Amino acid sequence: MAKAIFIMDMPECCADCQLADDDPSGLYCMIADDYYDGSDSSEDRASFCPLRKLPEYRRTIGKESEQNRILTNTGWNACLDKILK
């Protein structure tokens, strides 16, 4: 099955999340298909939260034109640049 990425600002808590729906039963996470009641939390987000922060840029050594891209990390940073465009 093909994979997809959805880019959004990381919410500080479930109540601020664009993917959460507040209904009579509580705060419903559409992505995790679960309700959040505040008791199962990790820094104000549910422990079952599927959202992950993008990785950090890596320090580069050399130029992108060099053959050994794995050691230079230029491909890693270029990928992050494309995602964040």
Helix and strand pattern: EEEEEHH
Q: What is the typical, i.e. mean, pLDDT?
A: 80
Please give the largest β-sheet: 3 strands, antiparallel
Distance between the termini: 25 Å
Radius of gyration: 18 Å
Annotation keywords:
elongated, alpha+beta, three-stranded antiparallel β-sheet, 85 residues, 18% helix, 2 helices, 18% strand, two-stranded antiparallel ribbon, 5 strands
Mind explaining what this structure looks like?
With 85 residues, this protein is an alpha+beta fold. 18% of the residues lie in helices and 18% in strands. The protein contains two helices and five strands, in the order E-E-E-E-E-H-H. The protein has helices spanning 69-72, 74-84; strands spanning 20-23, 26-29, 34-36, 41-42, 45-46. The strands form two sheets. Strands 1-2-3 form a three-stranded antiparallel beta sheet, with no helix packed on it. A hairpin with a 4-residue loop joins strand 2 (26-29) and strand 3. The protein is elongated and about 55 Å long. The model has no long low-confidence stretch (mean pLDDT 80).
Q: How would you sum up this structure in a few lines?
A:
The chain is of the alpha+beta class. 18% of the residues lie in helices and 18% in strands.
SSE map:
Layout: E1 20-23, E2 26-29, E3 34-36, E4 41-42, E5 45-46, H1 69-72, H2 74-84
Antiparallel strand pairs: 1-2, 2-3, 4-5
